[in-house]
From TrEMBL:
GO terms for biological process: carbohydrate metabolic process. Pfam families: Polysacc_deac_1. PROSITE patterns: NODB. It comes from Penicillium daleae. This is NodB homology domain-containing protein. InterPro entries: Glyco_hydro/deAcase_b/a-brl (IPR011330), NODB_dom (IPR002509). Keywords: Carbohydrate metabolism, Cobalt, Hydrolase, Metal-binding, Signal. Residues 328-411 are annotated as: Disordered. Its cofactor is Co(2+). Residues 1-18 form the signal peptide. Residues 397-411 have a biased composition (Polar residues). It comes from the Eukaryota. Residues 336-375, 382-396 have a biased composition (Low complexity).
Amino acid sequence: MYFCLIVAFLVHVISSYALVDGIWNPNAPSSLGRRSPDVNGPLDDGVLEKRGATTCGPSANNAGVCGTGPYYCDAPSCHFQYGPACDANQTPAGVNTTSVPRPKLGSTPYGVSIRDCGIPGKVALTFDDGPYIYTSALLDLLKENGVKATFFVVGNNGGKGQINDPKTGYPALIQRMYNEGHQIGSHTWSHADLSTLSRQQRYDQVVKNEMALTDILGFFPTYLRPPYESCNTDCLSDLKDLGYHVANYDIDTLDWQGDYGHSQNIFSSNLKSVSPSTRGFISLAHDIHDETVHTFTTYMIDTLRAAGYSTALYGECMSDPPANWYRNSTTGQPFNGSSHNSTSSSTAKSVSGSTNSTTTDTVHTSTTATPSAVSGGEGAFGSRTGNTTVSGTNSTIAKSQSATGTGTKLSGTTAKVVGAGVVWVLTCWAFSI
Ligand SMILES: [Zn+2]
């Protein structure tokens, strides 16, 4: 009997906290309760407490249980609908690019998913989800090997801070990418699954990253890789309207899974399956993983060269002139090589793909970003196949969603927890009498 009373008390406490601020909303988006299969952060990382301006709402894995800490407050695991503390809701400093004209540039197609490198014998090495604590080392390695790569950067994910926040060191790192001849594409502001968002939310994911990149570089990309490779018909249409090529890939190394033997087999078997005289490839890896940077990238470079291939940038695979890879943040025209960036005097190098900058060392003195490594690897940033991650931002365009105004939702999970507790207590009570 005493045991029952203790359990009843605990259930009461939990249910009270769960319902004090919230009203269970049976119409809450079902996606809130879905679980990204590879988000494996610690479920007990947060603390049950009342939701408010200082708490962040449920994580993707734990809808209905609100908490604080990285798993509840960092994109893409946190739910932006549940309160302002989810960092996906942050808006970067810089000029709002919403009204920048977006004429279609060049002959590379818009509105379709691009996967193939059009130049035989070329392999475009692409790295997603950064910059992160390993990206500087990757740039060193690429430089040592004379290789140019393409980076699809995320504005604010994994608790790394906003990429244009000088305190993070990432502005200098992104500037270095550009100066050293690498191509920079967008991978959205907070690694949201674009297919699950409204049009306005999709625009927000794109525009916020533009604002951050413009703040760093003075221009923004025309190539975007949708997180999780997820971009439905509406998404393709929106990205076309926003002037982006949907830049996917045809070799997924699955490096985020951590089985690098498997990743090596994937990479090498693809390259050896055809003759380099007949086709090229676009590969996917992630610079947020230590082993990808420090071991696997060298393997990819050595392997592709041994198989008779050489590297290319994504835009080169498309035979797209470098000026078309970026858009002038004021006119929307192809970036003409001059920058109004104010964070560095060593900007606006040609992005011909073969330009080695002599200004790169300045980065090392200003790169002070030492964010904690995020456990869970790709899981912390979402799985490529994990289309259930829900993240996003309140719109900077129409401001139709108020982060603070959505703090009263509770998912069905909470109701289930409370309901199960009541049933358990009643059952327990029945047995005790
Ligand atoms: Zn990604």
